[in-house]
Design goal:
Shape: globular
Helix content: 40-55%
CATH architecture of the largest domain: Alpha-Beta Complex
Oligomer: single chain
CATH class of the largest domain: Alpha Beta
Number of strands: 18
Length: 739
């Protein structure tokens, strides 16, 4: 029997090797067709008396990334379409769909013949759940092998037996930590937890897996044997009593109740361990069906799974422009940002010229890469030879002539128009006409900088976030005359360094900084109102933000906020900045020399480690303080999220961002906007435009013009539209205008 996605070869010992190798796919993923074929293979192996057992592996470098995003997306679309007609039938359909993989893996597990998973690379989600259903598991001893159940990161949870098999293979504490965090496991960690049986040299992986069957591997899972005992002891035990109450409290502390999937994991594990295995799977299936219907799951799946993958694959790349294979990239400026850009470029295997005003400065920039690699080596995440290879790709220089032959040059010099003008002119003097010049500016409009260029069509903005090596988002900014070739090359570069590109049209602050500045500004306003600083920071975290606005200001520097305010006043006039906020920032910097983390004192005090930072007590003396009971905590949360979301809506209205996927993904990756909401625009869509506008009007009346809803949002409220309907990313922009 032949299959499209698998080959089945049986050796002389009667062991079938099932190799998963999907044609026209770089990675194996689960589709309806794949699962149908797997079921047929299970039936074939069971029916053939000559087959003693089976080994399942991958024909690709990775094992599998889990479910196909198109399948998940179509399931949700079918559910919502059916729900409009018959909610009960829609839920039943979702329940049955949720159980498809669950019961297929259970069929494999109880088929009467031993199966071994030979894990040769990344093994995620449903693929790891397939492995856990096998009677034996062997992983290759390689840095490329990572196993995980990461579903919680996209608003769902392991719904094909993961919440039941993991806590039956390892102790409940480790199981909960793994399931609620979605952490990656190395082969060594997985073996220590009891999730895999053996680690083999990559070349001996299949032979090791087959040997397990030849040596009499039992075709019965441990939990199907009479007398099975949980590794960590029963739920109702001393150990259980010490685990479960704190686990619930810790989850509440970490998630503030914003992530239903994480809570569902605890419920699945707790309830599932009290009943027989098949009943436990049914409990998991019911919770999974419930979570799949949640607003959080729909938003997170769309933004952090579907949209993120589409953007990473170049969804906004212009058609008809050949792909660029980078041979050499130049970075102008070897300061913190330039050095970081050189590091991520070299890490991608691309030769990079790192240029500064003198060799000493350029060499110092290269040393930053050495320090980063030393840190990875110390943590066991890199090898010394990898450090040497990376450093060999970075050529420090003070001579612009070294840029000759670069496909792309990224300018990251001091944020001064004249300095940037000189750097642009000197670089273009030696670059070939086809080269693209990019600026990493965070404040100066690209159109203005492009006036310094003799070829504005090849001039573009590539805006990194700090620290470059950790931040996954890059804003690509289009000037008024930027051409498709420059855009395509910028996207190709961002993809080459394995970061996520979003495309933004030119404006002051671009997209991300406009939103972030609103977030900080609202916190300043709250301080001036007399809201206690701890309430502001706690409200932000409770709303889903990873960092409070005052802590974020410290990280970026309070004196930088002062410079931005002063520049804004120079450019736009006195009314562009609230004088009370200007006074607050001036007081912090000029009177108290509190500039942020960089000088050890800002809104927080930064004592020597291991002591933790604490809010500066002096904040209480700046303004008359309200009593906590006089402050509406829920309204604080609402204000912090609404002020950001409204700015995102204005950005869409102005045409700065044109694709809602980029607004949503960008807001999460750049500054962690409440990931459970799916991002700034999904937050509005989830509430509903009409309700959102009504709340914004109430906040505007109470707190000011920052909450004024733009005309676009008011129009959407009247028409009952969402951003993903109004700006459908899958419709040609021209067709959208015509409609």
């Amino acid at each position: 029997m032949t299959y499209k996605n698998f080959t089945v070869e049986t050796d002389a010992d009667g062991i079938a090797l099932v190799t998963w190798d999907m044609p026209d796919r770089s990675m194996n993923v689960f589709t309806e067709e794949v699962m149908d074929e797997l079921e047929a293979i299970i039936d074939q192996i069971v029916a053939d008396d000559a087959v003693k057992g089976a080994v399942v592996t991958s024909g690709k470098e990775t094992f599998s990334g889990g479910a196909d995003l198109a399948m998940l997306k179509s399931q949700l679309q079918r559910f919502h379409a059916e729900k409009a007609r018959d909610p009960q039938a829609a839920t039943k359909m979702l329940f049955e769909g949720a159980g498809r993989m669950t019961w297929l893996w259970r069929k494999l597990e109880t088929c009467g013949k031993p199966w071994v998973a030979a894990i040769n690379g990344t093994c995620m989600g449903g693929a790891f759940e397939l492995s856990l259903a096998c009677h034996g598991r062997v992983a290759a001893d390689s840095d490329k092998v990572k196993m995980a159940l990461p579903e919680v990161k996209v608003g769902i949870f392991p719904g094909a037996g993961g919440t039941q098999r993991v806590p039956r293979l390892t102790d409940q504490q480790q199981a909960l930590q793994m399931l609620t965090s979605g952490q990656n496991l190395s082969p060594q960690k997985a073996k220590a937890m009891g999730l895999i049986h053996e680690i083999a040299e990559p070349k001996k992986l299949i032979e090791t897996a087959k040997a397990m069957i030849r040596n009499g591997l039992s075709p019965v899972a441990p939990w199907d044997l009479k007398g099975f005992k949980l590794p960590g002891g029963p739920v109702y035990s001393v150990a259980g009593a010490n685990l479960w109450p704190p686990a619930i409290a810790i989850l509440r502390r970490e998630t503030y109740g914003n992530y239903p999937a994480a809570a569902a994991i605890l419920k699945c594990v707790y309830e599932g361990l009290l009943v027989p295995f098949d009943t436990a799977l049914r409990i998991e299936q019911r919770y999974f069906t419930e979570i799949m219907q949640s607003r959080e799951a729909a938003a997170m799946i769309r933004s952090l799974f579907v949209s993120l993958q589409e953007l990473n694959k170049g969804a906004r790349r212009p058609e008809g422009v050949p792909q660029t294979k980078f041979r050499k990239i130049g970075v102008l400026g070897a300061g913190f940002m330039g050095a970081g850009i050189a590091y991520v470029t070299a890490k991608a295997g691309i030769p990079v010229v790192l240029l500064d005003r003198d060799m000493e400065s350029a060499e110092k920039g290269k040393a930053h890469s050495a320090e980063l690699m030393d840190g990875l080596i110390k943590k066991g995440r890199a090898k010394p030879e990898e450090k040497e290879k990376l450093l060999s790709l970075i050529s420090p220089t003070a001579d612009y002539a070294a840029l000759d032959g670069c496909d792309l040059v990224i300018e990251a010099v001091f944020e001064d128009s004249e300095v940037k003008k000189a750097a642009t002119e000197q670089a273009e003097a030696v670059l070939k006409s086809s080269a693209v010049f990019a600026s990493n500016t965070s404040t100066i409009p690209i159109t203005a900088l492009a006036k310094n260029s003799s070829r504005p069509k090849n001039f573009i903005g590539i805006h990194f976030f700090s620290p470059v090596d950790k931040m996954m988002l890059v804003e690509i900014i289009m000037g008024k005359r930027t051409g498709d070739k420059a855009l395509a090359r910028a996207i190709d570069y961002v993809r080459a360094i394995k970061k996520t590109p979003i495309v933004v049209n030119d404006t002051r602050g671009f997209y991300v900084n406009r939103c972030v500045l609103r977030y900080m500004s609202e916190a300043y306003r709250m301080l001036i109102e007399g809201v206690p600083a701890p309430m502001i920071e706690n409200a932000a975290r409770a709303a889903g933000m990873p960092v409070g606005p005052l802590a974020l200001t410290d990280e970026t520097a309070i004196d930088l906020a002062q410079k931005i305010m002063k520049q804004t006043i120079r450019d736009l006039g006195e009314k562009a900045v609230d004088p009370a906020q200007m006074e607050l920032i001036d007081t912090m910097v000029n009177k108290f020399d509190r500039r942020g983390r960089k000088n050890g004192k800002g809104f927080y005090d930064y004592p020597a480690k291991p002591a933790k930072k604490k809010l500066w007590p002096g904040l209480k003396e700046l303004y008359p303080q309200k009593k906590p009971e006089e402050v509406d905590f829920e309204e604080l949360k609402q204000r912090l999220l609404f002020v950001i979301a409204l700015e995102a809506a204005r950005v869409m209205e102005e045409g700065i961002v044109t694709d809602p996927r980029e607004a949503d993904v960008g807001s999460i990756l750049a500054f962690g906007f409440a990931p459970y909401s799916g991002g700034t625009l999904s937050y509005i869509d989830g509430i509903g435009a009409a309700e959102f506008v009504a709340t914004a009007k109430r906040l505007q009346k109470k707190y000011g013009a920052q909450f004024k809803a733009p005309k676009l949002l008011i129009d959407m409220a009247q028409k009952g539209q969402t951003f993903y309907e109004r700006f459908d990313p899958y419709v040609n922009p021209q067709d959208r205008k015509a409609a």
